[in-house]
Design goal:
- There is one protein chain.
- By secondary structure, the protein is α+β, with helices and mostly antiparallel strands.
- It folds into 2 domains: about 220 residues, UDP-n-acetylglucosamine1-carboxyvinyl-transferase, Chain; about 210 residues, Enolpyruvate transferase domain (UDP-n-acetylglucosamine1-carboxyvinyl-transferase, Chain, Alpha-beta prism).
- Helices cover about 30% and strands about 30% of the residues.
- It is built from 14 helices and 24 strands.
Amino acid sequence: MSNYLINGGKKLKGTVATNSAKNSAVAILAAMPMIPGRTTLVDVPIIEEVKRMLEILASIGLKIKWIGKHELEIVNDGKISLKDLNHESFARTRAALLFMGSLSPLFNRFNLPKGSGCKLGKRTVTPYKLAMEQMGFSIKDNGRQYEIVKIKPRDSSVTMHEAGDTATENTIFAAILGNKKTEIYFASSNYMVQDLCRFLSAAGAKISGLGTHKLVIAGVKKLSPVKNYPIMPDPVESMAFISIAITTKSRIKITRCPIDFLRLELEKLRVMGQKLKISKIYKSENGYFDLVDIEVIPSRLKALPDKIHPLPYPGLNIDNLPLFVPILTQAEGKTLVHDWIYENRAIYYTELNKLGADVALYDPHRVSVTGPTELKPAEIISPPALRPSINLLIAMLAARGRSILRNSYSIDRGYEDIVGRLNKLGADIKRIE
């Protein structure tokens, strides 16, 4: 576990490119057991979450090879076995639950351990379970693992218990193969779901309704290898760099921003008084997503007139909500932040008080942030959650003086070479033991 030493209070400047999406990458990797042959992926982020997924794939018999810095080759010879499944890697990422769906066409009965990931209170698997049961599977929880049994897959009309991203992806996996038709209502249409569907379509899946809350899937007998599929840029990483620029009062240009998944966030910032220069739209490398470059111009901010809260897409992104908290510490007035999705994430926002912020906790889901405040350096242990941890790094970049952020694994799960990229913008960060 490494730590960050941050000499904060520096104005940053320059241009930074948005890396590929963590949540797209892990979902596409989870599909690999279903796709025989040799598949190559381009623009794969080199992050801890991806490494855990690759360790799981290797442990069940797939051959993994990096053929370029961000280019990945996965070979599936059809000899998949769960006998040597890497339980340690499985337990370190919640995305591993996606194998519940992607392995379901391959085995009549199998067991999977429970995944983990960010510690954000109770995180239900009920939507996974209820959807697959409607499709002809049995899912049992014996306390330590899940038992998945194929009873009688059938044509199904599934209404998602929640419009969750991974729950929708898992349901898609369970529907792709076989002679059946599946309608999925109240499906997530978030960026990673769309990217996964584009990839699966390239492999021969028949999916209609992309970008809507109703997906129709006609099962196919088999999928084919995909050559050189580029993973889309990450709108949450774009938002992280926007938050860094605003909180540190710096002028930074962020390129490759998926605009359709940032529009509401940018509107909130406009209402707060933030000046942004947005380029003309251009297409992502895979040709499916609209991108822009966003230049953040230092501005005087005022608090939002109403509370801020997340919603399933096209609402404000659930993972972008935390990134507003550092920004709100520099806005004049008080803002209510309602993080209703997770039980404990709002509690982590109060860690910013150790850096001089004024964050008041009302309950496990709501805080108010009063600003502007002068952020001050401190030594803090990262919470076991990605977005609250990057919040602390953002505030430390803005706090004049020497801060230490201990246990950076939570950040390394989702951000590739964040230290090097920030230092190129003028930050002063070192990894220390």
